[in-house]
Amino acid sequence: MYQILVCDDEKDIVSALEIYLTSAGYTVFKAYNGKEALCIIREEDIHLVLLDIMMPEMDGIEAMVKIRELSNVPVILLTAKAEDTDKVLGLTVGADDYITKPFNPVEVQARVKSQLRRYMQLGGGVKKPEELSIGGLTLNDRSKEAFLDGEPVSLTKTEYNILKFFMEHPGRTFSPKEIYEKVWNDAALGNERTIAVHIRHLREKIEYDPTEPRYLKSVWGRGYIFEEGTYEQIKI
């Protein structure tokens, strides 16, 4: 059955939507700000998001932009009548529909059903593979385990997420700033300097000779690239 994420800082609204949606047979995940919603979308197979606009921590507009960096899952905005400008902005940055508060349960179910049907018809429900394999490296995304030539490799959660990001984008060069923003789903704000430390630790675990990496290579003056092959420090 479909899994729906409900995100609103008003817990009564989240609880009400949970009742409406579970009664229709959906599985509901709950979040109370944009950052919590992004964490759930990264960890779970979400098929639709109901997203409030006005929230603390990270509002619905900013969350909408970041959701589109991760997924094409349908998003229905939850808006107040006075939020017409934000409503238009939300649709502009990638939302699929909106529901105005106070909402009718029948309308909620109808709009959810309509967006899910469209999403599935366009192939959006195709699941990502649970395993990523390049050369001798394999990631099992269900168990969050990594293997090098069949042997388990102990990675921290951050190291796993960085390696997964690279393996999902082989052959592409990313700057430390881009890596931080994509993996952490947040502005770098100087924190990109920590990327070099994580890369060094990753190389110590996945490379037979960290000084001559086979997989995670440096691109001089630009950042890092993941590709299987012999060692070279690429200069552009």
Give the second-level CATH assignment, the architecture of the largest domain: 3-Layer(aba) Sandwich
The SSE string, one letter per element, is EHEHEHEHEHEEEEHEHHEEE
Terminal-residue CA separation: 49 Å
pLDDT averaged residue by residue? 87
Percent of residues in β-strands: 15-25%
Radius of gyration: 20 Å
DSSP summary: helix tally: 8
Which strands sit side by side, in order, in the main sheet?
Answer: 2-1-3-4-5
Largest sheet: 5 strands, parallel
Low-confidence stretches: 230-236
Q: Estimate the global geometry from the Cα principal axes.
A: elongated
Structural domain count: 2
Total count of strands: 13
The CATH homology group name of the largest domain: Response regulator
Determine the structural class based on helices, strands and strand pairing.
alpha/beta
Commentary on this structure:
With 236 residues, the chain is of the alpha/beta class. The protein is built from 8 helices and 13 strands. The chain has helices at residues 11-23, 34-43, 60-70, 84-92, 105-121, 157-168, 176-184, 195-206, and strands at 3-7, 27-31, 48-52, 75-79, 97-100, 131-134, 137-140, 145-148, 151-153, 173-174, 216-220, 223-226, 234-235. The longest helix is centred in the middle third of the chain and has 17 residues, at 105-121. It is elongated and about 60 Å long. The model is unreliable at 230-236 (pLDDT under 50).
Label this structure with key terms.
single chain, 236 residues, alpha/beta, Rossmann fold, Arc Repressor Mutant, subunit A, 2 domains, five-stranded parallel sheet, four-stranded antiparallel sheet, 13 strands, 39% helix, disordered C terminus
